[in-house]
Amino acid sequence: MNLDGIGVKTPRKRERLVDKLKDKGIRNANVLDAIRTTPRHIFIDPAFSHLSYDDIPVNIGYKQTISQPFVVARMTEAVLEAGPLNRVLEIGTGCGYQTAIIAPLVGEVYSMERIKPLHDKAVANLEALGLENAHLIHGDGSLGYPDKSPYDAIIVTAAPLGIPNELLAQLAQNGRLVIPVGGSGSQELRLITRKKDQFISRLLDHVRFVPLLKGQV
Question: Which of 12, 20, 164, 172 is the most buried (most CB within 10 A)?
Answer without folding.
Answer: 164
